[in-house]
Amino acid sequence: MKRTGILFFPAFDWSLGDSHPEREERLLYTQEQLFEEGILDLPQIKQYSPRLASLHEALRAQALFPTPEVHIGSLDAHLIAAGSAILLGEARVRGEISNGFVMARPPGHHSGATSWGNRGFCSLNNEAILVNHLRARFGTKKIAIVDTDVHHGDGTQDIFYHDPNVLFISLHQDGRTLFPGSGFVNEKGGPNAWDQTLNIPLPPGTGDEGYHYVLENWVLPRLQAFAPDLIINSAGQDNHFTDPLASMKLTANGYGRITELLQPDLAVLEGGYSIEGALPYVNLAILLALAGEDYHHVREPQKPDSPALPLAALKPYFEALKKQHETIKPRFTIQGKAFFPQGTWIYSPRSVYYDTDGFEETRHDYIRECSHCGGTVYIESSRSSSPQKSVLVRIPFQACSECEQAGYDLWDHLQHHSEATTSGLLQNQLHDKLDVWSRKEGLRKF
To answer: What pLDDT score does 367 carry?
Structure first.
């Protein structure tokens, strides 16, 4: 029998405020709806209990700055959400289930390769932690992440932007109209992973027909060409027509069809803030589609106050967007530092705004160009109004010998020549080893 795993973690002890859109009630109405409908009594549904992710599992994917210890007291709920994704992912890889739905909060897709705190309601990236765990422990080679949240999955994109073995696809409301203001077609990947990132910004008012057309005519052919071992769906439900934070027109039935088309191995809950009007029905439709049951009878109580954009009006936009994507060519800035190991280094500066706490992160990213692997990554990061600077050095999965050595050389330089206010993390993904260093505490292993 095809079995579908399900895991609930409402995170009762984590809240951004009683009136905040991201609060514990987000999942309580869904639980009640599923109980009332008897879905959890279906013979193919298998329930799982949450588990805590370790700091090692989190640090495989993300650097927690200035040091991991600073965050420990505030990460319990986030580590359980990430650990829950890992648990259901392991069940899928081991063949216990055919697919699964991780209904856990807090969400994670706005948390990037470096994290100084919470932004977009996210502190840890659940999908990225899951993906790198499966690669490190089970040897999974190629994974596709399809993000259907209404907001661009900028954190997930950031983590895998230089990874040729992870295909990241994001369908979202146009970043010119919505947080985080990114996710345009020119964002296609780093020098060693060009065209492994696909962003499809959609106009406000896009509904079921528009989403399904894009999936069938753009996303699914791209997935088929990539041929991933696993497909992860970052299942944000804030595209629903009742969501208070966005302007899209998806229905619960539309979400069921998205799930049926994607056939994800795992869906991981992201956003969705229409707590009573959408989430119970959207989650029900998604779960039914995963379990191979008929979802077409699922109806939300409200009706849209205006129609979705007609497909005939959207098709010219989609075709122009696709043509624009195909014509964009890589343009990278070659620039390194005097102490960098031999090779061609690509430089990419960026800034990240943390909306929850109101500060700016300044980043200087460098990637070693390589035709054999994902390339060594070196990131200098600092936050506004702080003298603290932190560095991430990443030796990638399947690193070639030259990129592996480049990572060790950079890590050695950091420990012997950096300023007193500098700390750093070495992500040795090749050997699943993590080193944290600061002048105050020396070298620690996680």
So the answer is: 98
